[in-house]
Amino acid sequence: MNEKRSNANDDMPMIVGIGGLDHAQPKPQPVADRIAFRVAGTCFGIFGGDDTPLTLDAELRDFAADAGECDVRIDARWADQIARPAGEATFDSGGLWTVFHEGANSEFYFATPYLGSAPYKALTIDREFRRGELLLSRACLDASRAMYPLEYPLDELLMIHRLGRGEGVEMHAMGLVDEAGRGHLFLGHSGAGKSTTARLWQRESRALILSDDRIILCERDGRIWMHGTPWHGDAGIASPKSAPLYRAYLIEHGSKTQLAGVSKGRAAAEFLARSFVPHYSADAMAFTLEFLDRVAQQTPCFAFKFLPDQSAVEAICRASD
Amino acid sequence: MSDEIKNGELRGPEEAPDGQKSSRPYEPPKVVRVNLRPEEAVLGHCKVSGSAGPASGSCTVPGCFVPGS
């Protein structure tokens, strides 16, 4: 681990959320030597130093936080090149990342065929996921540009590992808050209709959409809460707000719009199939199974087949009255 | 599980301990199959053609500017 640390209490350049997402005409992003964002109550701080200018992705602007308050601190620095360990991996995602366990730390290596077989970045972090060092490969990445070094999937990986310690579960879901402040969770794999559903509800002034692709569930005072995340889907909707969970829907496109009740046992299993969990961690899986069972026990769940029109919105409103 | 073994017989939740019938009939446990998408669940891939990761607006990996990745 790098012993050269920045002082987390130093004043940081102000990074201000400046509105909704606009991928068509991206605005210039503030550049700083440290950046931070907060999702579902957990603050992630990234510290770069003089040779590593940092910037938040547009998706994260509304989630910007003070780096002096971070729960997870990542120090980023450049390395000429990065080599993977020779030993056996603890888990290989089959895609961008592989994790090894070395002593008290976890080591994540990121590689893509676009850049060859060598990792383009590597994170070493303690098992509590509080403090880590991120190496960025000069051989693979452009060191002259300000960057957001936790780009997908690293920021989400950090989140799900934190949650798996007993804090909650990230779900593959769109979430909205109705005018009564009740949270509705629409769960689905890719292509099930989460972004389509979000666009239908965008026309409703009485609804607030938290995300069209990723929602985090946590328990607070005996209730399940749903939190928006910056990790949006095709509709590009991301909000840092939250609401108590009221109902859950397993969504899929259908030839007509219809709601049908789902048993609690089936609901728990379907929730698990639409969650993001560190599958290689027995402790994280044990917690997740128990947590999702609690969610299913507390939350009415429905199978929701829908047409992509106003009937889908009306069906949910009628069932909620 | 509310089932219990009494006198060598499996007794379900339809029968209360005092022998009175409850309103819900016993339903044996059933195996439920659910569809998994492992390539999505492990956050292993960027979003391409409606699968895997979220639709992030930026990617800093040179040569890897897949739309929606």
- Topology pattern of chain B, helix = H, strand = E: EEH
Summarize model confidence as the mean pLDDT of chain B: 61
User: Uncertain runs of chain A with pLDDT below 50, 5 residues or more?
Assistant: 1-25
Q: What is the strand tally of chain A?
A: 17
Question: Could you please describe the fold and organization of this structure?
Answer:
The complex is a heterodimer of chains A (321) and B (69). Chain A has 321 residues and is α+β, with helices and mostly antiparallel strands. Chain A folds into 2 domains: 34-163, no CATH class; 169-320. Chain A has helices spanning 154-163, 194-202, 264-273, 282-298, 310-320, and strands at 34-39, 42-47, 72-79, 91-92, 97-102, 105-110, 121-126, 131-137, 169-177, 183-187, 208-211, 214-220, 223-228, 242-253, 258-261, 275-276, 301-306. Chain A has an 8-stranded mixed beta sheet with strand order 1-2-3-8-7-6-5-4, with no helix packed on it. In chain A, strand 9 (169-177) and strand 10 (183-187) form a beta hairpin. The longest helix of chain A has 17 residues, at 282-298. The termini of chain A are far apart. With 69 residues, chain B is mostly loops. In chain B, 6% of the residues lie in helices and 9% in strands. Chain B has a two-stranded antiparallel ribbon with strand order 1-2. Chain B is rod-shaped. Residues 1-17 and 65-69 of chain B have low confidence and may be disordered. At the A-B interface, helix 1, helix 3 and strand 16 of A face helix 1 of B.
